[in-house]
Amino acid sequence: MSEAVAIAGPVVFFTGAGMSVSAGLPTYRGAGGLYTNSDLEPPHAGDITIERLPGLWQRFRGRLEAGVELEPTPAHRAIAAFESSLEVAVVTQNVDGLHRRAGSSRVMELHGTLAEVRCLDAGHISPVRGIQWGPDGVPLCPECKAWTRPAVVLFGETLPPDAWRDATRAMSTARTLVAVGTSAEVYPAAGLIASGVCPAETRLWVNPETEPPSGDWTWLQGPADDMLARLVAG
């Protein structure tokens, strides 16, 4: 970033998997991404059955337990720091919960969060920290001891309506849009950054590899930690 970029509020940060790379989490579709060079299939809504739920949790358990120990990156903390001087909203495709842990107060988690589980019987939402695992390898609801599922959006499921509504509203009033670490390939979330939805006059694309999807973006080519630290510094 060779010259200063002015950021005016309200500002929306739209973040993807590249945001959390330096925390130790992989991207999904970039170079070396989890689904780029792998036969691994993304978790699907059809996995929420009595027969398949233990296998789903077998896939998620490592990520869930590792996520409890993850710390926000400098990029997460930089976004939180903007709140001291600007109106900020964070619209994230990530499920790691690191934006909230970094101190961001207005976060829309479009794909849910691995920080919580949801009871399959009564819909209770419980924090994952301290959860009891059943003998079948499925976490049990602290309220009623029923099986739970990850509180994330699986492929084939709709996005949370409240998060979608709030994200759309934030996009519609943004003067600055900063897209960080996203491939902009996962819909419907990626549609939020289209100019017809978000008419922000300043549009910044933070990504070390993937080019912006159109010519109305300024490409800040580099790691999220470095680029956002420079934005905070002005």
From TrEMBL:
Entry keyword annotation includes NAD: yes
InterPro entries reported for this sequence: DHS-like_NAD/FAD-binding_dom, NAD-dep_sirtuin_deacylases, Sirtuin, Sirtuin_cat_small_dom_sf, Ssirtuin_cat_dom
Domain Deacetylase sirtuin-type as annotated: residue spans: 1-234
UniProt entry keywords in alphabetical sequence: NAD, Transferase
Gene3D superfamilies: SIR2/SIRT2 'Small Domain, TPP-binding domain
PROSITE patterns for this protein: SIRTUIN
Coiled-coil parts of chain: none
Single annotated GO MF: histone deacetylase activity, NAD-dependent
Membrane-spanning segments: none
Name of the protein this chain belongs to: Unannotated protein
Organism: freshwater metagenome
